[in-house]
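Review form for a predicted model. The reviewer records the input and the model, then writes brief findings.
Reviewer: anonymous (R2)
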Amino acid sequence: MDNITVNERKVKDIEVDGKTYERYAIKTHVITEKDNIVDVSKQYASEHIQPGDIFFITEKAVGCTQGRAIPMKDIHPRPLAKILCKFVLKTPYGIGLGIPETMEMALRECGTFRILFAAVVSAFGKLLGKRGWFYMIAGEKARSIDGPCDCTLPPYNECVSLSPLNPDEVCKEVSQALGCPVLVTDINDLGGVIMGAWPESIDRDLMARVLKDNPLGQSHEQTPMGLIREVK
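Model under review:
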């Protein structure tokens, strides 16, 4: 299966802490809630895995298989969501909580009090010239929520994507099926985090730095999974 690649405008190799790592993207069909993430991983990745490889998959792909892509038409934002979203910093790399529908889902996922407290802390931080305080309080569930943009693949161009449930357990199940370490990642062109990992001993900070330039891309690449391979 010729579905392993290095995406356009991305580089294969990166050097971190004196070691070189190759990153490969793996093309799949458009993953939906009808798919099982373990089966999809085996279908597209198993033949490419070499000893020492680390398999990684995006949090959106995992979330989609769990029914965590919510149609915009099914979300009815409350007035508070419409107000709060106006204060969210807009970036070219994703909507985030910048529309009423995504902010409404943040209120549901994280709780109204926590989001309000995060908003107050964020406002105070901005007065001090500091950014990022909102998500420090709101947490990764809020950070990983995203809405559709021009580059979003159908049917997710009409959905709000939520963070996956139990990402560490997902990694464990996929790892047992593939026979290699597994990561669930939340990476975009501004950086990101490792949301899940198996085995537990994986250095998540190191892996986030290895993937910091987002080798999978976030447009029409249709590569929601990939491999990390240390160059010996």
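Findings: The first strand starts at residue 4 and ends at 5.
Further findings: The mean pLDDT is 92.
Recommendation: see findings above.
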